[in-house]
Amino acid sequence: MGFYLLKRILLMVPTLFGVMLITFCITQFVPGGPVEKMISQLQGVGRAGAEVASGPTLYQGGSGLDREKIEQLKKLYGFDQPPVVRFVQMMKKYLIFDFGSSYYYHRSVVDLVISKMPVSMSLGLWSFVVVYGVCIPLGIKKAIRHGSRFDLVSSTVILIGYAIPGFVLGVLLIVLFGGGSFWSVFPLRGLVSENWSELSVTMKVLDYLWHMVMPITASAVGSLAVMTMLTKNSFLEEIRKQYVITARAKGLGEGKVLYKHVFRNGIIPIITGFPGYFIASFFTGSLLIETIFSLDGMGLLAYRSVLDRDYPVVLGTLYFFTIIGLISRLLSDLSYVVVDPRISFEAIDE
């Protein structure tokens, strides 16, 4: 197993390098980079100033920036050096997690990401809790009562929820329960109310949870169908195996057969995805959900960074999240060995 771990860790290096290299090359060919954007802004200000001024001699910016100013802008953003040199310098800094500062927000990328994390963590973590908390017992119940009316009705409901995009469901929730056209039950924006600091501890918790109801519902419903059906099919496959028939023939109760024998085998496909999903829930953001409910999180930050050509934020967050993704996949693979002793990496090592 040790050799397998070493191989996987060593494979992370070229994977991470390839992802960063491809993304860096794409940013070099995308028009409207930070230098061009700043030039257009300065020229726009210049034209506006020229219109207000009484004569052309008072302001000469409307005719464009001179070469010296452009070179200063390139040096300011680090574009005065060849792309290869910039990429090598960038990767050297990224090895010590120095991501630089944002062009747009004028803040450290690390500080900027940390400031947006509470929103994404709230959405991801609560969605994770809701999905696993609902899908596992529901999937087991559906497997036990396979083919019954309960199975048919619940499958219909969750598949309808799966077919509705999260942002459409979010708009529907706002119209129904956010004061849109019917009832004003839940707040429309933010994680907490404006007077949150003045509330008691209990009221702060309730206020936070009250704000989370609609965003979590909109973001979690789509995942319910996949996880529920995966749980049902896994348990249904185990229930039909010979060892379950043998256990029942020996006189074991249905509950003991289900939770002592079937459960620990049927839960394996669900548990193995647990580490990756859990880690990803802390760092992923949803652009549409955050936009609909006015939540300033990682999804909105990533979208704005791409539009504003804020390359330190784009590349820095990509580097960090790629590492997180690679680690979560490794943990998911290792979880197979933890939950299923029949699996071993010794054969792979050999």
Automatic annotation (TrEMBL):
Membrane topology: Multi-pass membrane protein
Keyword line: Cell membrane, Membrane, Transmembrane, Transmembrane helix, Transport
Membrane-spanning parts: 9-30, 123-140, 152-177, 208-231, 266-293, 313-332
GO annotation, cellular component aspect: plasma membrane
Pfam families assigned: BPD_transp_1 (PF00528)
Compartments reported by the entry: Cell membrane
SUPFAM superfamilies: MetI-like
Domain of life of the organism encoding this protein: Bacteria
InterPro entries: MetI-like, MetI-like_sf
Positions of the ABC transmembrane type-1 domain: 117-332
Biological processes annotated in GO: microcin transport; transmembrane transport
Family in the record: Belongs to the binding-protein-dependent transport system permease family.
PANTHER family named in the record: INNER MEMBRANE ABC TRANSPORTER (PTHR30465), INNER MEMBRANE ABC TRANSPORTER PERMEASE PROTEIN YEJB (PTHR30465:SF66)
The name this protein goes by in its record: Microcin C transport system permease protein
